[in-house]
């Protein structure tokens, strides 16, 4: 059997609090990009974001956390999604096999840090939140809620983080170091990131329009998603249902600029090329590309060129960005898009690239703009981040 | 399966660990609760115009990696893997303070960009024009060991032949104040800070950057072979001896064959007991070493520990200043490292000549 088995998924995003709700929104074009509601920011009237429709108090109640907990919002949504994934995979004894957790985050507990930064010295009851700033705190919290004792680590490579956690998880299983790995990522919205992206002038004041000639930038979002990867031995032994497989992966560095992508998408091209090598698949075998497609002028041009370099004279498969639905969820993006990729394979659908109107003048590439039903065996998913970090994952139907 | 050799090292720390042989100038500072790096001459490595905008962690990372590359006689690597607890925390502080103090106005992007955790790894890739695999791990005390484990897997599986791996963290003034408040850093009033006889919780904090060139081929520059790395999130104190002996057994190494054990003692009265269990029992007849009195505690301090262990194997000498006990061995060929922070994020690393 080629590739590593995916046996469970969990997700919470602005378009739904479960795998089913997310899929339903994708099918029905329920976009969830709205004005900022949960965070006090002077940019609330200008910027649109994809917020999860649950407050911290609601999340605390649903997770049954004690009153004295020190969970950041990122840790709350991460635990929420990871618990779903473990349940979906039918796992009852978490340490029964050599089980690991590879998480991803870029902001960690920044949501609490920015809220309480100057209050810590006056309010002793807040001091407990100091330690939740740490990126690794999110994974520690998930592990402790799941009772997972073994290997736990976190990857932070900006917007490609979760792709890299899925990649590492697959490699750990392939090499026989672990039998089961929970992989994914989480990022809550924060004033810090809203302002950060604003200073880079890549936030759109409108709905994001990936691969459109008149695209103005991205909408930020928040989300968490985790997948359970298991060895073929466990799958066989427990007669597990395999949702799909991670068949290819590649990471490369653009080595061009700290925040901008190179004109020819060198890093993106190399990441896709490596993923094809690992999977043994030909580009022509891909049925759907879930592009990174952040709708910034720079990303879509660079990614489009890289895709054209991969396909050369061949036809580029149907592609779309799902970021008009969810916004760009940073370190969680590749994890939620992994869930969407698996759903595309399970249900044989290509999601629409919403908000697209005008093709880009630089090349002849047009995303799929309406929901399309067709057989899907292989999905390629791209995620690129600051620091030139480029990652590609390939998901395949389990035979 | 291919092997993993440490073929070059570079270390910027709170001691003079460059332009020296091996800790001959080391100082055990018992008066300060926060230790700062001994800065190298940055302009020997980075153009001054570029250095001016760079975060401290980026600069130290670039210098430490350049030293490691030079030491390994390596021109380029196939991958760069970095571990960092808090990344360039000074820039995170700066950007956040600007947001809060100026009500989200008048912000510039530089600090935001550098606050991203993978900035150090990315800047090294940019400097070296390395387009290969580039990961950054951020998981408290196992940030560096995660990078090490990842690199070892790639060398074993023949996915790469040479990899630059490092651990880097920097002190930020406000974060240090918060750490004191949260009692992660010891209070000034508690000095002198005698690390092996602690009375209070928390530790003396430090910063640094330690980089290593790992290759699958043994060379003239080789320090040691990395036999194994293991990461465990949660361990009870009474489980540590069993876990560590199981780890050794899996590598066919007897306790008596361990020529030195390098422990992450940090002077925290609450959690140093994990190490004490080992020094008083399983490893009571083994040379015991410590290092955080020299480099301070920080998430990637264990990379300094690996630097020290590598040097010991290569030079076959142990500086007096790092000895916990007086047990000696005729040769130092097999070294075991154990680290944890606040009873979480445990790691074992096994080296051999």
UniProtKB/TrEMBL annotation, chain A:
Keywords: Transferase
Secretion signal span: none
Domain Ketosynthase family 3 (KS3): start-end pairs: 1-397
Gene Ontology terms, MF aspect: 3-oxoacyl-[acyl-carrier-protein] synthase activity
Top-rank taxon: Bacteria
GO-annotated cellular components: cytosol
Gene Ontology biological-process annotations: fatty acid biosynthetic process
Cross-referenced Gene3D superfamilies: 3.40.47.10
InterPro entries attached to this UniProt entry: Beta-ketoacyl_synthase (IPR000794), Ketoacyl_synth_AS (IPR018201), Ketoacyl_synth_C (IPR014031), Ketoacyl_synth_N (IPR014030), PKS_Beta-ketoAc_synthase_dom (IPR020841), Thiolase-like (IPR016039)
Stated family: Belongs to the thiolase-like superfamily. Beta-ketoacyl-ACP synthases family.
Designated name of the protein: 3-oxoacyl-[acyl-carrier-protein] synthase-1
Organism: Flavobacterium circumlabens
UniProtKB/TrEMBL annotation, chain B:
Domain spans labelled Beta-ketoacyl synthase-like N-terminal: 46-218
Record keywords: Transferase
One Gene Ontology biological process: fatty acid biosynthetic process
Tree of life domain: Bacteria
Gene Ontology MF terms in the entry: 3-oxoacyl-[acyl-carrier-protein] synthase activity
One annotated Gene Ontology cellular component of this protein: cytosol
Stored SUPFAM superfamilies: Thiolase-like
Gene3D superfamilies attached to this UniProt entry: 3.40.47.10
Protein name from the UniProt record: 3-oxoacyl-ACP synthase
